[in-house]
Amino acid sequence: MSENGSLRRGRPGYDQQGILEVAVAAFNQYGYDATSMGVLADRLGLSKSAIYHHFASKDEILERALDDALGALEGVLSEADAAGGRAADRVDHVLRGAVRVLVAKLSSVTLLLRVRGNTEVERRALARRRAFDKAVTALVEEAQAEGTLRSDIDASVVARLTFGMINSIVEWYRPGGREDADKLADDVIAVALDGLRMPTSNRVDELLG
Amino acid sequence: MSENGSLRRGRPGYDQQGILEVAVAAFNQYGYDATSMGVLADRLGLSKSAIYHHFASKDEILERALDDALGALEGVLSEADAAGGRAADRVDHVLRGAVRVLVAKLSSVTLLLRVRGNTEVERRALARRRAFDKAVTALVEEAQAEGTLRSDIDASVVARLTFGMINSIVEWYRPGGREDADKLADDVIAVALDGLRMPTSNRVDELLG
User: Fold this and answer.
1) What PROSITE patterns does this protein's entry cite (chains A, B) (predicted)?
2) HEC profile for A90-117?
């Protein structure tokens, strides 16, 4: 919950951000369709009208949560573009950044990954996800063309497999566990970019001929 | 549907396997809870009693479908164990085998991955999934100990990330697409074991010192 008193318009205890967090947790637990404004009001200990003071509709709560996750992921792409340099380094930046966003915004990213396009808000979110995937695929193609990433795998398959690995983290990651976001990002980079096989096992033999 | 006439006990057109396939597709589309025996009967163009001729309950259909997926995955592990040799090669065998099972049994694996433990049948399936994950983690640990897989990543994180990547394939893979199971298995092995980065980009520099 925000410490900023000026954001508090409802009852003490829940500002807009606080309501959003409880709502996203409920959507993830029961499903968006199964979570009515009445259920949310019960969970918050607020009246429905107190929630409507902050959000025009349940759809608006969903939109805000999805925008939170998508905006952060799109920010990672923009940072990578702004940093310039080799495409392989920008791929590294995007993968690490995506892991950090996932850990920092675990609930809203979880919600985003479950969106199936049942409403207009969901369809807009899916369109932004597709644009993100397309940008990642283009970045991988660039790295393949510059010769820094292997080109024997289709770039869109590379994007899908690496983001499949990253997105699967929501299934098991719990804050406060053994791995923090940076270690987890290192692990993902280690697997995706350098691979698990020890170079000494047969890679060096091949490389040294 | 099976060609074997002796399996056909219901109306012409659907043997037990045929009913199972239609049921699994419906469970994946609408959710297990939302798919009643009445809905299934409508979809099959059969009476409910014709379905009960083959399956004692909806739960039994689910159990058969989950057993189909789990049995195939467990078979991959047994084959790897039976083959012996270096643990890294057995990891390779398990990852490739899991991709092939996923492609061959896309619907039942998709169903398995959505199981949340709401019923006794689901809880038994989750217990088998956990045992499978544990066996994969043990295999990775063995490969780390023999020095063939890198040991700077926790073995259980390795198992989660690689199977996260493999399992994500159900989200986008469609039979008859550009990639067949063998190419997809090659791609997964290429990413997970050897990594995307071209050795010439900076790996060889490091290796050759």
Assistant:
1) HTH_TETR_2
2) HHHHHHHHHHHHHHHCHHHHHHHHHCCC
Is the CATH code 1.10.357.10 the one for domain B58-208?
Answer: yes
B194 vs A209, more confident: B194
Where do the domains of chain A lie?
A: 6-52, 58-201
Give the bridge partners for A169, in sequence order. Answer: none
B5-52 maps to CATH 1.10.3470:
no
Q: Which among B147, B152, B161 has CB closest to A165? A: B161
Question: Which class in CATH covers the domain with range A6-52?
Answer: mainly alpha
Fold entry, domain A58-201: Tetracycline Repressor; domain 2 (1.10.357)
Q: How far is the alpha carbon of A2 from chain B, nearest alpha carbon, in Å? A: 33
Token pair 């709502």 in the structure block, residue: A23
B118 contacts chain A (CB < 8 A) = no
Q: Residue A156's closest chain B neighbor by CA?
A: B172
- Please say if the pLDDT value at position A193 is more than 90: yes
The CA distance from B188 to the nearest CA of chain A, in Å, is: 8
Residue ranges in chain B modelled with pLDDT below 50:
1-11, 201, 204-205, 209
State the DSSP H helix or E strand holding residue A124, giving kind and residue range, or none if neither.
Answer: helix A120-145
